[in-house]
């Protein structure tokens, strides 16, 4: 599998490539089901609510809130030892979908369920961009 | 719908869990043979009586596992099943065996999960151990693409995020979850086979132990060890000629909806809910008829949610329920009377068997110091992945 500095990296497949291509341009594109109106994440071949194949890509803001969080005080994998303690979070976007990601540019006090967050586009030397989040500052 | 309750667990074998296994290293097929022989001897049945088998993975073959086992043990079977439900596998094995027997496909089924270390293999052989644990880093796997690159790998952090979400919706009492670990340790201290026998802990000890993934302390998390277990499930007719009190399978349920909790439609209403509802409906009994519960306990939060979602208390009241009840074998709500996987030991894929084996021991009246007096009806749960798949089982003495 793809690696960067020893870390596992995403390896897009044709179904998911538009999502990663958009991230590399600092945009978030989500699939939206033309048949049942559901938003879909992660990208799939068919809608997990109705199995329709009529999925369109639409740009969204990336605004959301912390659905849950933890602080991994032991590396979850040897390659992530340099990120410890890992601020692992699940973000729920305004569209209702949830994403696995990490909190950046914040501290442990920001780890509160419901905390508003905004996207950070983490461009890697391998051309892949990860979608991380930071606390929304008013 | 469901079972008539005409199939029973009639034999069992369980290796004592060991944190540092120093015995002979043999292959999993060989362990399967040893465990099957022990469980059949316990039942008083012969190898030639076997006409069904239920297995999980084995080290020696990635596919065609049932036929490999049948050939190696010299069995001719009418029912062969491989179960892939992680920690929910052993309970899933038992109900499949019972269902196949009630369908008349077979009348003696062996289910086994070897979990002792195997011999070292040459370097060109595929590795048994992956640093990604239960997560799949194979291209095309959603986890490989959307979870692993962020460091969301394996179990601890997933369960921790479930606990923190619970805290936000219902509140969290760290002393209550710590009490689950402490009460189960009391049970282990009455069980000489437990890895933590002779090492009591208090709620304060749990809270003072190292934080691994907030809010989970190390004493709230299982520690893998070596072991293995098997059971023999047989028809009522066969059960009449076996050596012990038959333990009838009267209800079961199974439910799954996600692999990674991020994508669960409802993180806090766990799959054990519908599984338990089906199991109790099938058995035709109320929660109050249960004499002891053996709940899959990879983490304390798993036990808490399993108590709630199995219907032993109202949703959101698990913390106060745990605080108000004595969960030990002497208590008013006995939980994991062997010590649970937290204190008896998590024997790899056989870990979920410890809950089934303890149910059998309790109903036979063979549990020694940790025996619950007059234990006739036991509820067991299994949990795989990160609350990903759960299984429920009700067993009753014949």
User: Helix segment count of chain B?
Assistant: 13
The CATH first-level class of chain B comes to Alpha Beta
β-sheet strand percentage of chain B: 15-25%
Main sheet: strands, sense, barrel of chain B:
9 strands, mixed
- CA-based gyration radius of chain A: 16 Å
> Proportion of β residues of chain A?
35-45%
> Which shape of chain B, going by the Cα principal axes?
globular
How would you state the average pLDDT of chain A, rounded? 96
**How many strand units of chain A?**
10
CATH architecture of the largest domain in chain A: Beta Barrel
Gyration radius of chain B, to the nearest Å? Answer: 20 Å
- What is the terminal separation of chain A in angstroms? 40 Å
> Which strand order does the major sheet of chain B show?
3-2-4-7-1-8-11-10-9
Multimeric organization: heterodimer
Unreliable stretches of chain B = none
CATH topology term of the largest domain in chain A: OB fold (Dihydrolipoamide Acetyltransferase, E2P)
The total count of helices of chain A amounts to: 1
The count of DSSP E runs of length 2 or more, i.e. the number of strands of chain B, is: 11
Number of domains of chain B: 1
- The number of domains of chain A is 2
Tell me the distance between the termini of chain B: 21 Å
